[in-house]
Amino acid sequence: MSASVRHGSSRAQAWFCTTGLPSDVVFEVHDMTFHLHKFPLMAKSRKIHRMLTEQEEQRPARGRRRRRRTSSDGGDSGDDGAAETEIEEAEQEERDEQQQVRREGDGQVYSIVFPDFPGGPGTFEVAAKFCYGVRVDLTPWNVAPLRCAAEYLEMTEDHAEDNLAARAEAYLEQTVLQHPGDATKALKSSEELLPLAEELGIVDRCVEAIAARSSAASRSWFDDLAVLGLRMYKRVMAAMDARDDVRAEARESCLVSYARGTIPGLSRSMRRRLASAPLSSEVEQKELLEAVVASLPADKCSGRVVTAKFLFALLRTSHILRASDAARAALERKAATQLEQATLEDMLIPSYSGAAETLYDVDCVERIVRYFLAEEELGGEASSSAAIEEETAEVSRPSAVAMVQVGKLVDSYLAEVASDANLKPAKFCELALSLPDHARIYDDGVYRAVDIYLKAHPRLTAEERDRVVGAVDCRKLTVEACTHAAQNERLPLRAVLQVLFFEQLQLRRAITSTLLAPTAAGTPRAARQQRAGPGEPAWRGATALAQESQVLRLDMDSVASRVQELERECSSMRRAIKKIDGRGGSRSPGGRSPDGGGGGGSGPAAGGWRARHGCKFSTQVCDSQARNVVASRASRMGMSP
Q: What are phi and psi of 421, to 5 degrees?
């Protein structure tokens, strides 16, 4: 059998079966007409057989009515009204016959209309070819429409052997339902066949096949889920949650693949979407996103599939689509569980709210950090040590390694947003001081952020400047950071003095530990024998010890010269402070201080300069024996005294 398609009008198409015989039946399916032959179709379809038989039975009665009308036209009629009525009825019947009966050549053509045929003209064409004996290739995409078409046309085994219904059913059970990817395609094609596909059990069988074989199959089929509508996706996820044999990783893979395939712009790193994924409106995307958020596991995700990058991308998209507050809060809490795996790019979430003044949503990041810290608070008191513990903590608590990683991430984020002119000092300090002390081994990162903030906000008041600088713990700055801070003109004088003091203190401690190192090794003979190693003469150990001592002496000389230089600088600063205090006291009336004391700078007036600059160090600045000269972190969190 060969076929050709010919345009019949501007709104419809015609499909002709060119077998050499004139067509005797015309089927109208949606906007296409099929000119076929009744006997092949009647042999396979009980429904077509019944409809054509009914039309054949009605035709002799119509012929008799036409003959009666012809004979009545030749006779005389005395009743004009009855004649007009009969003529109108005859014209109506003729119009009906013109719609139902067509003539091609000398034979009569039957007409059947299928306005609700499942699968449309394409599926009817395949079913018609099957009736003519043409080989039909079944696929995961067409098996569900053909199964529904066979049910609609009653192409069952009761009417003819090896019929279309049995063929489609066998292919569905033996091939499609054996692989979740094929079952997903059949499920997608069933969305346009409801409720017939639901009545035939196609939908339920496909959903169960996907859920049952999701863990055993490879991951290559996960992208196929993107073609499903939201309703079918929810049914698949519900079926997977109801089964105990489905691994959590398989559920997460289904979730991630569906989200990336259906929500445009979810990931900035993904430049393309699946070609088969349906395009959705903004309202539909919002509904899809909230459904994906609801499908997230209640417990902490494995991190291998639902990564921190994916969660932050969902959070960014939820801001764009203006998702519900509950969905955004759930995403923030879920992102906090994997905060240590996030990158700076992930955390840079733009502010899409018109009320926000900053370029990036700093409030959102601050909430995520607090959710992260809440897990440690549930686990117990945070350790005051700044060293990284090698042993992992309790499962419900972030490890010390994760805490340090989050500290570095927050410092990088602060340095990125510090240049925003609309970022308030209070908001900057809240985020900088939200982490505990042991989250930062060194404060070089937060010092860099503070320096950028001071440079971008030159009009800060002295009080605001002191509060911003107070986020830095001078005791935890490296030598390089101390050197930079000592020459930083943007820092208040108080901060510079603290940096110099702690730099000197670190040098003195280094010298002390260096001097005590040889005594800790034991007796000189034991030290020489230890350096010589087993089986080696002691003179080799003595030579090595002498070389180490020489190198150590050179290092000590270098450190000692640096300490002397710092002491000279501190002495010069003390003299300058005394001169300033002296001039301040001499300006008082009568050359006396405000409290009636002398003008020598020993009274309260002498401390006026220190009070103005918050300096608490006088002669104690360079005193390495002082044990308690550092303000606590609690004092740094408040305003400077």
A: -65, -20
Q: Is the peptide bond before 195 cis (omega within 30 degrees of 0)?
A: yes
What tokens does 256 get?
Answer: 């991630």
Of 203-207, 345-349, 534-538, give the lowest mean pLDDT range: 534-538
State whether 166 and 17 are in the same domain: yes
Contact 155, 44 (CB under 8 A): yes
C-alpha distances out from residue 87 to 78, 221, 366, 369, 569, Å: 15, 67, 87, 88, 125
Backbone dihedral angles phi then psi of residue 441, each to the nearest 5 degrees:
-70, -45
pLDDT at 593: 41
What is the distance between the alpha carbons of residues 213 and 254, in angstroms, rounded to a whole number?
12
**End-to-end Cα separation, the chain, in angstroms:** 98
* Residue 141 domain boundaries: 11-56+106-178
Token digits for 189? Answer: 């094609």
CATH of the domain at 148: 3.30.710.10
Q: Do residues 157 and 38 both lie within one domain?
A: yes
Mean pLDDT of the chain: 76
Provide the H-helix boundaries in 296-398.
308-320, 325-336, 344-347, 362-379
Which among 346, 377, 408 is the end of a domain?
Answer: 377
β 32-36/2-7 pair status: unpaired
Q: What is the pLDDT of residues 582-600, one digit of tens each?
A: 665 544 444 444 444 444 4
User: What proportion of the chain, given as a percentage, has pLDDT over 90?
Assistant: 39
Total domains, the chain: 3
- The amino acid occupying position 508 is R
Q: What are phi and psi of 113, to 5 degrees?
A: -110, 130
Contact 44, 160 (CB under 8 A): yes
pLDDT confidence bin for 607, thresholds 50/70/90: very low
Residue 459 resides in a domain: yes
For 113-128, the DSSP string reads EETT-TTHHHHHHHHH
Residue 205's identity, in one-letter code, is: R
Whole-model pTM above 0.70? no
| Domain stops at, among 156, 178, 200 | 178
The β-bridge relationship of strands 102-104 and 32-36 is unpaired
Sign of CA dihedral 76, 79, 83, 84: positive
Give 236-271 pLDDT, tens digit per residue. Answer: 999 998 988 888 888 888 998 899 888 877 755 444
* 120-to-194, 202, 307 alpha-carbon distances in Å: 13, 18, 42
Nearest to 299 by CA among 248, 246, 235, 241: 248
**The one-letter amino acid at 518:** P
Runs of H (alpha helix) within 267-355: 282-295, 308-320, 325-336, 344-347
Q: For 366-387, what is each residue's pLDDT tens digit?
A: 999 999 998 777 655 444 443 4
Residue 160 CB neighbours (<10 A): 17
Compute how many other C-beta atoms are within 10 angstroms of the C-beta atom of residue 271.
6
- pLDDT tens digits for range 434-468: 999 999 999 999 999 999 999 999 999 999 999 99
Phi and psi at 14, nearest 5°, equal: -120, 140
pLDDT for the residue numbered 98: 44
**CA neighbor of 575 nearest in space, from 616, 607, 618:** 618
Regarding whether 138 and 46 lie in a shared domain, the answer is yes
Tell how many helices (H) and how many strands (E) occur in the chain: 26, 6
Q: Which neighbouring-strand residues pair with 484? A: none
